[in-house]
Design a protein that fits this description.
By secondary structure, the protein is an alpha/beta fold. The protein is built from six helices and five strands, in the order H-H-E-H-H-E-H-E-E-H-E. The chain has a domain of 93 residues. It is globular.
């Protein structure tokens, strides 16, 4: 066999490799900004998006339509501090040492998703409760494990730069408009 013909497959492979490396690379999709809403004692179906005929939640409804809406979600604990610690740590309450109890210390020996986002370049923050009630300073945290506290979401946005990846935990105080009066049960 002719030596030139024997090298043809190798030559074709090299040409294809060079051509494919010259193709325009598609840019990677940007990392998403994250807005995590949580509210104690706010149950299904008390939002317009869930079909509640009384409660009007236009802001929450819009966020749910443009983002993610959970329709089948559960908490790890019926108590706020252990449940919030489980969300932040991705662990069950019984795995969170003292953090698995109300009015406890937040464990510092496990990474929080907020801390991991900060290490990945996100500017993070939260408003209102974040994690609590309990002690996080005793474990060496210089701010709430849910993120640096901001009085309002606008203050958080002003502090972050336009090139920042943003992650914000919002204690859901959703503006409710046109809410009808709720009938009050009066025992006879």
């Amino acid at each position: 066999m002719n030596k030139t013909l024997a090298n043809t497959p190798v030559l074709c492979f090299l040409i294809c490799l060079i051509i494919s490396s010259c193709e325009e690379k598609k840019p990677q999709s940007p990392s998403p900004n994250i807005l995590f809403l949580i509210a104690d004692d706010w149950s299904y179906p008390h939002a317009g998006i869930y079909g509640d005929p009384v409660v009007r939640t236009p802001t929450f409804d819009r966020l749910a339509k443009e983002g993610a809406l959970f329709t089948n979600a559960y908490v790890t604990s019926p108590s706020c501090s252990p449940s919030r610690a489980s969300i932040l740590l991705g662990r069950y309450p019984h795995q969170n040492e003292a953090g698995g109890n109300l009015w406890s210390e937040f464990p510092s020996n496990y990474p929080t998703y907020v801390g991991l986002l900060e290490k990945a370049g996100y500017f993070t923050g939260s408003t209102r409760k974040g994690w609590g009630p309990g002690e996080y300073e005793i474990s060496g945290f210089n701010h709430n494990p849910a993120g640096k506290n901001f009085d309002e979401f606008d203050a958080f946005l002003k502090k972050g730069t336009t090139s920042s990846l943003l992650s914000f935990g919002l204690e859901a105080v959703i503006p409710i408009g046109n809410m009808l009066p709720i009938p009050v049960y009066k025992p006879e």
